Amino acid sequence: MLDATQVTASSLRRRLSHLDALEAESVFIMREVAAEFERPVLLFSGGKDSIVMLRIAEKAFRPARFPFPLMHVDTGHNFPEVLDYRDRRVAELGERLIVASVQESIDKGRVREEPGNPSRNRLQTTTLLDAIQENGFDAVFGGARRDEEKARAKERVFSLRDEFGQWEPRAQRPELWSLYNGRIRRGQHMRVFPISNWTEMDVWQYIERERIEVPSIYYAHEREVFRRGGMWLATNPFLERAENEEAKQMVVRYRTVGDMTCTGAVASPAANVADIIAEVAAARITERGATRADDAFSETSMEDRKREGYF
For 263, which DSSP code? Predict the structure, then answer.
């Protein structure tokens, strides 16, 4: 029998399953932030990645309350099913939710919608930075993963943002082993990505293992959609269809959840998590690359948007 001194971190790691190891790393990161920072906040949109982060927070801090509130940057163009799920899940947990509204930013003149561009995704940056400043947050948990988009793969787990909320890739701090440098100056804040080392497959396998409920739009359902830019977009009050963009009923699901104006559906019969895992295993393109028009067709790269303060 091994005594306590013989149980090393590496030997413990060898005993853990792949998902156990990822979960343990994410729990460690959340606890580190709770210990190092005064006013963290966790971004929760009702999307699958933020749902997994919520479960990680439960593992890290329950039965106590979370040592931080939740926040959603709401574009005003979100899927109703996702907002319903968001509100119900927050109520079940009994946690505090802050809703930072892009519409309020527009009404206050802080941002202006681009003529001919119905997407409000880029407008979220100002709303997010204003909310961080107004609430005095010094660390912000986000659900970004390195397999989503190449610019995200360049970012550390602890990502320093300057006094203007901007990211400078060349100023990133080294992260050796599990050592994170959380030191910031006044006005700066840290973006923290607890599931940075997870993949889309890991997320769905974890959802299956933990039996986590997700919004219904992740599963196959019938919806009226139309084709634009190689993507199936849902008909909705925020998008005006051209004459040649014929709407049709299809059985679809969503791999990612975002603004209705730029989030595409995929034709799919996947009606449960096991079906989704099989689909993800066969996929050869990331969910954002396949279904997010703001990524696929934006004239501004994700890296440039992140430099401006985008998550």
Answer: B
Structure tokens at 141: 């948990």
pLDDT digits (tens, 9 = 90+) for 262-302: 899 999 999 999 999 999 999 877 665 556 555 444 445 66
Give the CA radius of gyration of the chain: 20
Q: Which two tokens stand for residue 222?
A: 């019938």
Cβ atoms < 10 Å from Cβ of 134: 10
Alpha-carbon span 249 to 117, nearest angstrom: 25
Is the peptide bond preceding residue 269 cis, with omega within 30 degrees of 0?
no
pTM, two decimals, is 0.87
Task: Please say whether the beta carbons of 204 and 273 come within 8 A.
Answer: yes
Which whole-number Å values give the CA distances from 105 to 46, 73, 125, 187, in the listed order? 21, 11, 10, 21
Q: What is 17-202+301-308's CATH topology?
A: Rossmann fold (3.40.50)
Spatial separation of the C-alpha atoms in residues 52 and 196, rounded to whole Å: 12
Domain boundaries, the chain: 17-202+301-308, 215-297
